[in-house]
Amino acid sequence: MKNFKFLFIFIISILLMNCPEKPKDPITQNAPLFLLSLNNNRPKGTKVTIPDSLVYTSSEFDATTSSHTAVVGSTSFITTKNSEFFSPQFTTLYTISPSLPKGLSMDRAEGGIRGTPQETNPETSYTITCNYEARPGFVLNKTTLTGVIKITILGSASIPTMLNYSGNLLTSSVRLVAEINSPLIFRNLTSVPGTTVSYSVSPALPAGLSIDTTTGNISGTPTVSQNLINYSVRATYTVLQNFRMSGSNPLTTVVTLYIDSALAISNRTCNYSGVAPGCTTSIPFSCPSSVICSSQRSGCLIGSSCVQ
Q1: How many structural domains are present in the chain?
Q2: Residue 15 covered by a domain
């Protein structure tokens, strides 16, 4: 039994001596120990090249200055063209400094900026940082990308579709009723923040009345009676700095003016309550000078028989 063990060890020794030598790694052959260590620590995986810059775009984006302009009260979208948030090779996490204006926020996963600004904000530079993390099996050439965009929030100067005056009882047009030889003032109730405005009227108002070119108010003491006559009141707006104007400028509104005695006006005034003479409870509204009854008071003012 002892001789058998010696024979077995002798055979194994012969086999090991005849085994071919394992080829040496040309990279590590004769390399110093510290290089061998670096080689063993090299990242393993498919290399991925991260873009050189963050690229943003929007309908109000100026690529030459990397600036975006938004308006208070209007929804705004600023998206990144990098399209990195759905990459199968890495994940992204975005941050921005300083904080965005009130109403705007950043999606930290995909880098988009969206929302509805709530207040004006002067042009401000924002630094955006995107941090990358490789998914398993991939190696990134960089892990951080930084860019700067500028955002300006303008105020909204929205011009209405028509002027409105005190004393006007209509909704889609303007009709003013004045008593002859009685002082009056029809105040312009229209206000457009973020603008200055001047007013004019054509043709000239009747004797005793005038328009304030700064406020648009119509005032004075009419001295001549007249039936329903149309006047075009023109408002010309100038937008102020840090505001954006929308709507038709200049704005022209047709103002219909009726001037007569108190008695004549009362005969053409619709009833506020109860049932007008000659009408029924289902169609109670009319005026003494009209033979037409209406179910609503606004219907009483359609046509020229009733003026207010």
Answers
A1: 3
A2: no
- pLDDT tens digits for range 70-103: 999 999 989 887 655 567 899 999 999 999 999 9
What is the separation of C-alpha 81 from the centre of its chain, rounded to a whole number of angstroms? Answer: 21
In-domain check, residue 23: no
- pTM for the complete prediction? 0.72
In a domain, 53, yes or no: yes
H helical segments located in the chain: 2-18, 33-40, 262-267, 297-300
DSSP category for residue 61: E
- The CA angle 174-179-185, to the nearest 5 degrees, is 60
Domain that holds residue 251: 159-267
Residue 174 in tokens: 């303007």
Do residues 255 and 178 make contact, with C-beta atoms less than 8 angstroms apart?
no
Tell the burial category of 113 from Cβ atoms under 10 Å away from its Cβ (0-12, 13-18, 19+): buried
With respect to residue 206, please indicate whether it lies within any of the assigned structural domains.
Answer: yes
Same domain, 58 and 127: yes
Spatial neighbors of 286 by CB under 8 A, at least 6 apart, are 270, 271, 276, 277, 278, 279, 292, 293, 294, 300, 306
Contact 193, 183 (CB under 8 A): no
pLDDT digits (tens, 9 = 90+) for 234-282: 999 999 999 999 999 999 999 999 999 999 999 999 998 899 999 999 9
| Residue 260 identity | D
